[in-house]
């Protein structure tokens, strides 16, 4: 079997396997899988509204996935995307609420604030890793909690004891009337374009610049990079800063697009953690992240329609979705099985 | 390579963690959801369809959302409605981003009134109300100013005040606890009322106030309750939704280990007596009832009669049975009950005004 054929076959087979096992789970728990999957399909592609909302859901996943993938390529495991996203969310919303400026200044300023806030949140673990060899996993996890509770406290201060900020000025909003009219009032916003541009930016940095070359080299082998004269510490910090900036932008998507405000949270949004899976599904490449985010976003959003249309309880739906993602992620096993089957055929000849 | 494997393992653990955390307590969600959608047109005795969107709690949170769903079910029963399209139904939200979609989905399924349960839905309701001017939306615990939105508020502080009186008079250690969910106006009303109640009944009683920062973390509720009981408190009032289930767990474990243990919990929102059962004993002192079910029922009924209170804010308190104390089933002795009654009468008559915020 040719390499290209397996490359296409593997994801296909894994998705089908995932759907099949999901169907069995629905059957066993007494629900009709055909009705269930029709609801899922309608929930993703049913009409213009759902397509718009699905794209909206994909947007933050794209950026969160990029953040994780970028750090990964430099050999760093950024679990702090969640926290960086939360501070980015707050920073963007704050700039959106605090001042009113012409759109051409205000919107970029709010986006930039989110990126800077996320970058700052990534800088701390990067610095600690570079200077003191503190493991970034521990620091980033702890930074998540700090982010969650610090922003909650800040929201309280900013909103005079309330639990959410005012709505941002329209001059800072990413919402698009054009998209809204196109998709029957879905919350699809211009952020999707920004996210896609960032995919290109990441590709450019990694593939076309010296910086990207160095970052990847550090990711492959720190000692060799150092021997080759690269400044490893600088690269570690930079990788975390850029990764954090991506995560901060994901927060800006929520602040300026989806919600247009920030409210205090009882727990994590989950987008940052899902970003880890998105990046790993996409094998940490920019294009792969698009695939991973699309899968995650669509399933996550489409799943909402399963209780709505098919009456399947949310718990079962979550299991089914998890199973599908599980099978896609374990594509390696399927690749192995396919190869073995192909080899057997050869031997038989 | 080992690093990558380590990372993968770690991410799996995190993913499992978040998923497990989301599971919480699900015992009887799927009671009759299998009939969804099939009951169309079988029995259309009245011309109304009502539905609700829960926040992340779900209709089995033994609290707020459950109470609303019970009200909706009762309304459906009384009017011969079936669960599903054209009758009554609910959708559960998994995150803040889902509110808009769920509200929209129900409106598109032609429900006449759609309820948004909880202050968290304020933003979503405001937005949808603007986009769907023909829809009738009601929101509980928040005010949305739009002509097609009915806002429902409760005077939680009045019920919490009575709970504070009960706690102060019943406490043997002279120390009681308050476990809150997130520090938001609604919960602060509970806190303010409770503090005022304790103060009014016995100023010497100390109150330990703790906020857990979440409504769906039973384990946090359990550790907080543990700390309070350890610190000498004997009665804990919780206003923390699912987090409060942990308070019950802690109290029950203590009662189980030692039948003479002096531990009590005051429940919230719905009558949580069943939560407190330990063998033959029960550690639920009473519950502050927030009759979301009555509110949901009333508004549904008004809508059926063509009198949907759009653009209005309805406030329920002790006087109109929107708030109250649950039957203590003998846990509170007669003489204390009569004192509580006195305070209640004073509040209803307007002689006592319970503060909404903590000074």
What does this structure look like?
The complex is a heterodimer of chains A (349) and B (359). Chain A is built from 16 helices and no strands. Chain A has 349 residues and is mostly helical. In chain A, helix 3 (48-73) runs parallel beside helix 8. The model of chain A has no long low-confidence stretch (mean pLDDT 92). Chain B is α/β, with parallel strands linked by helices and 359 residues long. In chain B, strands 2-1-3-4-5-13 form a six-stranded parallel beta sheet, sandwiched between helices. In chain B, strands 7-6-8-9-12-14 form a six-stranded mixed beta sheet, sandwiched between helices. Chain B has a two-stranded antiparallel ribbon with strand order 10-11.
Give a short summary of the structure.
The complex is a heterodimer of chains A (349) and B (359). By secondary structure, chain A is mainly α.
Helicity level of chain A: over 70%
Q: In which range does the helix fraction of chain B lie? A: 40-55%
How does the overall form of chain A come out from the CA principal axes? globular
Strand content of chain B: 15-25%
Counting helices, strands and paired strands, the structural category of chain A is mainly alpha
Could you list some keywords that capture this structure?
heterodimer; A: 349 residues; mainly alpha; 16 helices; 0% strand; globular; B: 359 residues; alpha/beta; six-stranded parallel β-sheet; six-stranded mixed β-sheet; 41% helix; 18% strand
């Amino acid at each position: 079997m040719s390499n290209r054929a397996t490359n296409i076959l593997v994801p296909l087979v894994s998705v089908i396997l995932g759907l099949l096992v999901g169907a069995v789970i629905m059957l066993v728990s007494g629900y009709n899988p055909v009705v269930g999957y029709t609801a899922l399909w309608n929930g993703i592609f049913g009409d213009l509204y759902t397509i718009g909302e699905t794209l909206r859901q994909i947007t933050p996943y794209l950026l969160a996935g990029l953040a994780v993938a970028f750090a990964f390529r430099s050999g760093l495991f950024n679990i702090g995307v969640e926290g960086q996203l939360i501070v980015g969310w707050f920073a963007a919303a704050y700039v959106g609420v605090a001042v009113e400026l012409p759109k051409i200044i205000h919107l970029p300023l709010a986006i930039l604030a989110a990126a800077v806030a996320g970058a700052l949140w990534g800088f701390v673990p990067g610095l600690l890793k570079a200077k003191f060899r503190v493991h970034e996993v521990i620091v980033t996890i702890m930074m998540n909690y700090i982010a969650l509770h610090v922003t909650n406290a800040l929201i309280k201060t900013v909103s005079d004891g309330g639990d959410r900020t005012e709505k941002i000025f329209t001059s800072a909003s990413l919402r698009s009337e054009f998209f809204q009219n196109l998709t029957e009032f879905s919350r699809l916003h211009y952020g999707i374009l920004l996210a896609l541009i960032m995919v290109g930016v990441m590709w450019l940095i990694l593939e076309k610049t010296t910086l990207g070359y160095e970052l990847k080299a550090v990711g492959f082998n720190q000692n060799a990079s150092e021997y080759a004269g690269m400044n490893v510490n600088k690269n570690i910090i930079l990788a975390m800063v850029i990764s954090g900036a991506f995560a901060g932008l994901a927060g800006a998507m929520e602040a300026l697009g989806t919600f247009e405000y920030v409210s205090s949270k009882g727990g994590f949004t989950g987008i940052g953690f899902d970003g880890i899976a998105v990046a790993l599904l996409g094998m940490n490449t920019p294009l792969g992240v698009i695939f991973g985010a699309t899968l995650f976003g669509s399933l996550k959003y489409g799943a909402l329609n399963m209780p709505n249309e098919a009456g399947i309880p949310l718990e079962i739906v979550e299991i089914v979705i998890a199973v599908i993602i599980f099978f896609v992620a374990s594509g390696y096993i399927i690749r192995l099985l396919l190869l073995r089957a192909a080899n057997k055929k050869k031997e038989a000849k | 390579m080992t690093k990558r494997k380590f990372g993968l393992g770690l991410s799996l653990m995190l993913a499992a963690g978040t998923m497990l955390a989301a599971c919480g307590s699900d015992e009887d969600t799927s009671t009759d959801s299998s009939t969804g959608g099939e009951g169309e047109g079988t029995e259309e005795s009245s011309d109304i369809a009502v539905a609700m969107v829960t926040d992340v709690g779900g209709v089995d949170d033994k609290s707020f959302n459950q109470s609303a769903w019970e009200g909706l079910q009762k309304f459906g029963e009384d009017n011969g409605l079936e669960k599903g399209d054209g009758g009554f139904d609910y959708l559960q939200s998994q995150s803040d981003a889902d509110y808009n979609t769920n509200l929209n989905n129900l409106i598109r399924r032609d429900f006449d009134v759609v309820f948004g349960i909880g202050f968290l839905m304020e933003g979503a309701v405001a937005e949808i109300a603007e986009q769907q001017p023909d829809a009738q939306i009601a929101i509980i615990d928040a005010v949305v100013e739009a002509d097609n939105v009915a806002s429902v508020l409760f005077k939680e502080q009045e019920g919490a005040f009575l709970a504070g009186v009960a706690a102060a008079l019943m406490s043997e250690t002279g120390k009681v606890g308050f476990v809150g969910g997130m520090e938001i106006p609604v919960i602060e009303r509970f806190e303010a009322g409770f503090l005022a109640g304790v103060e009014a009944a016995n100023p010497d009683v100390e109150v330990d106030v703790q906020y857990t920062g979440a409504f769906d973390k039973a384990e946090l509720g359990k550790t907080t309750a543990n700390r309070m009981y350890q610190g000498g408190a004997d009665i804990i009032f919780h206003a923390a939704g699912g987090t409060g289930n942990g308070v019950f767990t802690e109290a029950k474990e203590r009662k189980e280990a030692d039948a003479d243990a002096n531990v009590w919990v005051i429940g919230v929102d719905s009558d949580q007596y069943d939560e407190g059962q330990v063998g033959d004993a029960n550690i639920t002192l009473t519950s502050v009832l927030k009759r979301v079910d009555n509110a949901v029922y009333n508004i549904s009924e008004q809508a059926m009669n063509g009198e949907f209170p759009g653009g209005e804010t309805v406030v329920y308190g002790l006087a109109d049975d929107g708030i109250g104390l649950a039957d203590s089933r003998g846990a509170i002795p007669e003489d204390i009950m009569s004192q509580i009654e006195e305070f209640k009468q004073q509040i209803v008559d307007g002689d006592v005004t319970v503060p909404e915020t903590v000074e």
